[in-house]
């Protein structure tokens, strides 16, 4: 097989060729309708070549992701595509390994993606680390009718406060991203349908918001799809659910993305929501030292965990590490006793709190003495990791 050459695009023609591959492989808009460099950022593109011909590419968007109350530098991988006639030749894995090394050199701690197929991403070290859940409910079933807070239409003047409300919720969750302008635009101005935004406030203080689109199913009725919804207080939650329920005369179905255990559903009288779609996202520990030090931990924990990490793709991670935690902060040093042996894929699932050490032992990703397993379980315990955003 010919050598695979991977680097940033050398010019507009290579970006266009990559755009053609994305349009054919992943249903991106064609290059005539979609300025790939402008939308995704020229600096975020990688292309693969064989004998000088562009045969694939991917996109890595720098973001942040919240764990333990701190935002961890993360590379969001999307648009991984290979031209159909070149598939099955290892191009995808070569691109991923190249991208991971570039992320490491740039100081990125972790990387996240949504897999079209898992084996392609497990080989370079990604593993399931959280979920994106889609819920559906008949608005008549909300059973919430009071609106304790004033509700009004969202305006551009509200955007800064909306961002702050989202961030306040995100810092207390596990896995939410620190949204950039591109992600916010997808929420407020979706490619399909018109978005309607509303905010709920107590005086001048915003306590929640909702953004939704209406998808016509059978005129005059429509499905209501919630692009984004956050409630910081019980009054905000009740007001938003009541507001959505008031669409019941014309909408028979409301769909939204939420956590595995959605606190808003505790405000409804019955268990009427249905989980209609579950998609696991995958995380990769790009740099063990940076990743462990960047996230937050419970302030009452004061301990050490001695890891021995196995990583066949990124040699700088294939080592022993001592994680020392005090006052919610972590320090990592090389060496130690390696009492908890863990594959880098298992470390991804542990890092987010998706699986415990004992659960990872069952899958063959981790093993260690009982005390080390117990301590590690408490260190990484927290809210179930989930994502409200697709990328």
Regions with pLDDT < 50 over 5+ consecutive residues? none
- Sheet-strand content, in percent, reads 35-45%
User: What's the CATH H-level homologous superfamily of the largest domain?
Assistant: Gcn5-related N-acetyltransferase (GNAT)
Provide the helix percentage.
25-40%
How do the strands and helices of this protein lay out in sequence?
Elements: E1 4-7, H1 12-26, H2 36-41, E2 45-50, E3 53-67, E4 70-82, H3 91-105, E5 110-113, H4 118-122, E6 127-137, E7 150-153, H5 159-170, H6 181-188, E8 195-202, E9 205-218, E10 221-231, H7 234-245, E11 251-258, E12 274-285, H8 288-294, E13 303-310, E14 320-326, E15 329-334, E16 340-343, H9 344-351, H10 357-362, E17 366-368, H11 370-379
Parallel strand pairs: 4-5, 10-11, 13-16
Antiparallel strand pairs: 1-2, 2-3, 3-4, 5-12, 6-11, 6-12, 7-8, 8-9, 9-10, 13-14, 14-15, 16-17
